[in-house]
Amino acid sequence: MWLFIARRILYAIPILLGVSLVVFVLMKMVPGDAADIMIPPEAPKDVADMIRARFGLDQPLHIQYFRWVTAMASGDLGTSIFTNQPVAGELFSALLNTLKIAIPAAFLGFALGIVLGSLAAFYGGTRLDKLFSGVAIAGVSLPHYWVGMVLVAIFAVSYNVLPGQGMGPEGFPASWEHVKHLILPVVTLSLIPMGVVSRLVRANVLEILSMEFVSAMQAKGLKEPRVLLHIMKNAAPSALALMGLQFGYLLGGSILVETVFNWPGSGSLLNLAIFRRDVPVLSATILVLATIFVVINIVVDVLQALIDPRIRR
Amino acid sequence: MATQESIVVSTRAAVRRAEAGRGYWARVRERLFADRITMAVTLLLFLIILSAVAAPLFATHDPLASSVLARLKSPGYKGHWLGTDEVGRDLYSRMLYGGRLSLLCGVAPVAFALLIGGSLGLLAGYSGGFVNSLIVRSMDVLYAFPSILLAIAICGMLGSGLGNTILALTVTFIPPVVRISETVTAQVRSAEFVEAARATGASSSSIIRNHILNNVLGPILVYATSLISIAIILAAGLSFLGLGVSPPDAEWGLMLNNLRQAIWVNPMVAALPGVMIFLTSMCFNLMSDGLRTAMDVRI
Fold first, then answer.
1. What is the ipTM of this complex?
2. Residue to test with chain B: of A25, A204, A256, most B Cβ within 10 A
3. Cα A134 to Cα B140: distance, rounded to the nearest angstrom
4. Homologous superfamily of B4-61+92-295 in CATH?
5. Are A153 and B138 a contacting pair at CB < 8 A?
6. What pairs with residue A86 in β-bridges?
7. How far apart are alpha carbons B272 and A292 in whole angstroms?
8. Block means of pLDDT (10 residues each) for chain A, length 313 residues?
């Protein structure tokens, strides 16, 4: 098991290097470099060159990349060229804000998805199955940013019962007021994981139900809850892998929902950085989000191997 | 007596053989035509595509003509069937025209990803060894980005616009297509009938054309249909963020973006373009499900 974990972590190193290379290449493909944004066009050429030299922008690309990667790896995420603040602090607080909606949304979406998916499979072919499968496919097909807008239109504009913007007063998870701010973004964000998980669980459980060992257990007279346990244990590994991926998507993909609800998370930070052409913030945010995604994948793989020993090879 | 029975048996066998002889695709078509939901969805999709392609025929107003006096009016206002947007443009006509860019952004990236990713996967699965690890490992790097983050990163860095949107989505969709085509190719490559073909002296190119492509195409097609549904949502999402198609062109996501503030004035009108995104994406998803059942593929 330890060997498996070690191997999995070792394999992540070339992946992370590749990811950093992709981000660096994208960064260099931005029209104009970071200095262009800071230097006014009327500045004399030698001043512009001085500023370029200070940021190492006059060096060959491979040296620039090496410096950038070592700085990132040592935790120095650079400085915003717009606010002049270290990126790390801003990014950290933004990530915490994103987690505040992503974690409840993940729990809600996964729970609903598992329940709907397994019920649809157990009642396969009936009306209940069709209803739940329909809900699941709608969850996958709905543009969730639009659902967010509709929810705001209903609950914030028409009935004015829930706030539709921001995360409320300071000092976060303290009062009912804060929880009220959470409801709409969390429900919106949970739609996709609900749909995706429910579709996978349904397909998995249907397949397991048709296996011989299930009939064997029933024939042996095993109580239904025990049979259910066996079925769930078999469906768990792939569902778990999917949920890990989906949680990563929630972190990286919350940008649309955060925009709708003006939620000050990592997505809003990314959005702001794009429109300010703040390349250091932009590249660091993308790199950190992708790194988190890689780490989540390792955790999921290890959990999968814990449940299903066949995966540990 | 005995002869009669044997005749019955032999005709049954002949029917079975004839059925088998009609080929895989004939049976797929039969199953598809019997599936009412898939047929209805296909019809609806056809109508949506037609309304976009022939937008000038169906539109009642110029999609770009604005009017200060008729801003954010509800459906039915002075011949505006679906109302007007924040600068008084006719929403119905804009929805028709918007379908052009939205559908293009949904279909084009998937088509490019199929071409590039499909051939990369074929190459990786067929050649194995070093080429395989090179391709699969580089795809693993792209997999390390949550898909929407990759698209946003590309569009955010390179700038907005139709071309960059299609490029961003193409890059996002290549890795999953490569994975499927690589897996299926590797499976088929070691199948007995391919061994047999090779033993009879068939060349690599004819094996790929006759045996591998036939088997890879089904799963890839099913997957591509569901990818289009994701592409439409993502492309509209990019425009919604202001990273996709540039104004004043009509595109469903961009229309949603423009109408975002209008939600406080006329929520009904502001929500309309989303209905089209949802409907189209739902149709592609249901069609993918229908194809999957008819072709009996598992991804």
1. 0.84
2. A256
3. 33
4. MetI-like (1.10.3720.10)
5. no
6. A79
7. 36
8. 84 88 84 66 72 72 81 77 80 88 90 89 82 85 86 81 72 70 88 88 84 80 79 81 85 83 86 83 88 88 80 65
